[in-house]
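Dear Dr. H.,

I hope your travels went smoothly. While you were away I took the liberty of generating a structure for the chain from your last submission, since the lab meeting agenda had it listed for discussion. I wanted you to have the full record in hand beforehand rather than looking at slides cold. The sequence, exactly as received, is reproduced here:
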Amino acid sequence: MKHVIALDVGGTGMKAALVGPDGELLHQARRPTGRERGPDAVVADILDFAAELHAHGIDRHGEAASAAGVAVPGIVDEAEGVAVYAANLGWRDVPLRALLTERLGGIPVALGHDVRTGGLAEGRIGAGQGADRFLFVPLGTGIAGAIGIDGRVEAGAHGFAGEIGHIVVRPGGAPCPCGQRGCLERFASAAAVSEAWAAACGDPGADAADCAKAVESGDVRAGQVWQEAVDAFADGLVTALTLLDPRALIIGGGLAEAGETLFTPLREAVRRRVTFQKLPSLVPAALGDTAGCLGAGLLAWDLIDDDITAPLNPSNPSYPSEVTT
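The corresponding predicted structure, in token form, is as follows:
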């Protein structure tokens, strides 16, 4: 059976699948990234994992994978297939596409940025289906973004498109590791909310999830922390929608798991800020932590299939709510 390899490399774990032409998940696997062993070991493990998937496809389905798609964090040169830099993995200028192509017997390989790849999946088969323009924003330890245009995700001239977390929303505010002050992710990321709530409640172990629970229980201090984060996020989103005019804003990541505790005040905060702009829909992401792997499969199919909307159909019975071993 014709199939492709999909691999999503995260800071702590890797998710993988063999994906058939109709979106059927023929095989799924997970394993630790093992970053504590150093960047060279991580690259070796990626190559080994991909080779194992390739061999499994031949053994179980009678032919080699037609292509492979790999999503990685950090700065990615998608055109050249180079993982330029990833602080949490410790690598620089890794020619990952060339290494994988050689290891996999010459099949075409696509290399993508993890957030843009996740955004690709959300746009085509997740919460953004039917939207010709969307912005996908995962709220995690930091804040990133993916700009979707007609079924594809814009990388930008230098691979930095979509970095909404580094829009300055509070000029002169808290310093950001990027070198600026007042960046959005210093006020509205899960890490920022955790820090603010820990300080407000006096518990150094408190995190953003605890803050959301306290908001739901009516805690005034939590409500203030939460609203400050929502207001900062709304400022960043309105700046982005003014520039991009998306049809949908798709919000994912850990903070989005708070559900309407986040989305109700966020929709209202965005609504209050728009003037001439067209208000887009603002919806939660649909694919959870499977988005990167599913998007990697889409990247692989794009190498061999001109119909960018065909593979990975969520109506297929094998379409996952979660990738499992």
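Two observations you may find useful: The two ends are 21 Å apart (CA to CA). Confidence is low (pLDDT under 50) at residues 307-325.

With kind regards,
E. W.
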